[in-house]
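From the methods appendix. Each design record in this collection lists the tokenized structure first, followed by the designed amino acid sequence. Records were kept in a plain field format so they could be parsed without special tools. The example shown here is representative of the layout used throughout.

RECORD:
FOLD TOKENS (323 positions):
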């Protein structure tokens, strides 16, 4: 059930022991929003603990309180009176779901979140969950310390591609303006977030070599196998002139393909939703439990249909072979 920000804040105020979590495959918004919320909750006298059921990419390890994030052990239980889920729906938090039977409070900005059986504060116009967390800090009367501001800034910067994507709204910039006033240094955070290991840059080269173009240049895709971190790779092809939908398929394990999509117009949230995933209109993803070849066929056909092309199956052309 969708509730208001005030109602959600009341539920937080009524709780004492709060388990905070976010989605598997955590990004800057997932980690930033949980760590900011952890500090906000403690500052208003709550007991709080963050659990995320996944590894977190190295660039985010420098965030304040990062070392306090726990990963649930098999069959572990955690005593809580509220399960606060940030930046995703309850179905995408892995084993954290089994830690407690406490009631759920979900705060999210994903348009595909249905809010069916749980209390949901959804603001899909918000650029990031971190942008909403900032409002909750205000509502709860918590101070925005530099550490809180750093976490919130990180989430907003990553989810907006450093204020380049269409989700960047006036309110986003007003919020980050306040964060900078709190002492956040955008250049230092950008430098930290952009760092890549040699292995990541090598994978990036491989990804670009694999690029294929579909439907007369409207769609571009890149392909990876077992890549650990793919942050920003899809932007390599998103920028190609004429490309509306860019996609990336990373076969993380046999018959387990992670799919990312970015668009300039087409609603990729609906495409991802139809394939069991979700996300935003211009940035979405899903997991396809098939071979990478089969996943490519399924995805290209779904994108082709959304683009209303005459023949939605296309084997594509290797970018390197295009004159
Ligand atoms: P990314 O391509 O960066 O992994 O994801 C783009 C957006 O879609 C993010 O907001 C992410 O949370 C969402 N998303 C990606 N994969 C999935 C998925 O499998 N299920 C759902 N519900 N959302 C996803
Ligand atoms: Mn987000």
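DESIGN:
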């Amino acid at each position: 059930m969708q509730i208001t920000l005030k109602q959600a804040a009341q539920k937080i105020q009524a709780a004492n022991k709060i388990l905070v979590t976010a989605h598997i495959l955590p990004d800057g918004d997932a980690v930033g929003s949980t760590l900011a919320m952890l500090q906000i909750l403690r500052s208003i006298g709550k007991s709080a603990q963050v659990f995320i059921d996944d590894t977190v990419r190295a660039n985010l390890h420098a965030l304040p309180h990062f070392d306090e994030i726990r990963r649930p052990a098999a069959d572990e239980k955690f005593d809580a009176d509220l399960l606060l889920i940030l930046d995703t729906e309850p179905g995408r938090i892995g084993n954290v779901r089994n830690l407690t039977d406490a009631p759920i409070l979900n705060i999210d900005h994903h348009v595909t979140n249905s809010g069916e059986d749980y209390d949901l504060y959804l603001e899909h116009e918000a650029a990031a969950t971190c942008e909403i967390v900032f409002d909750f800090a205000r509502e709860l009367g918590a101070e925005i310390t530099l550490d809180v501001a750093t976490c919130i800034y990180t989430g907003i910067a990553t989810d907006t591609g450093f204020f380049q994507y269409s989700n960047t709204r006036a309110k986003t910039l007003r919020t980050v303006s306040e964060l900078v006033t709190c002492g956040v240094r955008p250049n230092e955070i950008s430098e930290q977030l952009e760092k890549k290991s040699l292995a990541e840059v090598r994978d990036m080269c491989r990804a670009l070599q694999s690029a294929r173009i579909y439907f007369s240049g409207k769609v571009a895709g890149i392909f990876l196998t077992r890549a650990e971190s793919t942050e920003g790779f899809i932007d390599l092809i998103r920028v190609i002139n004429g490309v509306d939908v860019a996609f990336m398929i990373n076969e993380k394990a046999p018959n387990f393909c992670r799919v990312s999509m970015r668009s300039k117009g087409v609603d990729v949230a609906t495409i991802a939703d139809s394939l069991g995933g979700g996300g935003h209109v211009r940035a979405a993803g899903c997991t396809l439990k098939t071979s990478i070849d089969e996943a490519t066929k399924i995805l290209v056909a779904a994108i082709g249909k959304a683009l209303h092309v005459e023949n939605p199956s296309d084997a594509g052309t290797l970018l390197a072979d295009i004159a």
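APPENDIX NOTE: The longest strand covers residues 245-253.
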